[in-house]
What we know:
disordered N terminus, cell membrane, transmembrane, Sec-indep_translocase_CS, translocation, proton motive force dependent protein transmembrane transporter activity
Amino acid sequence: MTQQKEEMTLTEHLSELRKRLIYVLSIFILGLVAGFLVADPVYQYLTKAETAQGFVLHAFSFWDGIGIYMKIAGLFSLVITLPFTVFQLWKFVSPGLRPRERKATLKYVPYVFLLFLIGLAFSYYVVFPMALSFTSSITEKMGLVETYGMKQYFSFLFGIVLPVSLLFELPLIIMFLTGLRILNPIRLRKMRRVAYFVLIFIAVVVTPPDFISDFLVMIPLLLLYEISVFLSGFVYRKQLAADAAIESRYVRDSDNIQSG
């Protein structure tokens, strides 16, 4: 009977997970449709920006144009879907959380959207121009004529912008896990070497194959990790203070019972 109950509970969990995934997929599809509506204005903005000046972009296949529109629509949909996805994840795990943990973790959801936008702005206005300037200067020194397809230009752009934007969520993830008492600043400091190695590896993998792009992405990621450790310490100290207050109240109530 117990085994059957556990199996039913597992089935219910899988059913709940499927429902949350369907919600996320539905919002992503709606965001994709909306993304196609804004794809052309976004494309015009990106191609008329200062970073794109001096480049004559070419289409080398019939699918290059629609492919770029699909990438822009996908990025737009991701921006819309990301906070909703985190909220659905919270809804899925919240029944297993204590009321205090449920309240503490819910407040992080709105910041998912904000941090992604900050990462998007930083990667596009800071990292991307520097990487583009470096690669163009090397091409010029080699005496080569820059003739790029629109697919290559936007692949280079999205290859830098998207990973950096997503990795800007790192402080929020660390704070979320600290709020659940899975991580703490002491553990994060102990695993700093491993974390640095992983972040450097990510920077090398997600960026174009040149040292300057790796370096420009690597440094912000390492800084983000240190910021995450600091924020984790802030959450951890609040947890310790709350635990101390509860323990003090428990001791005081016990003393009152004994004296009574």
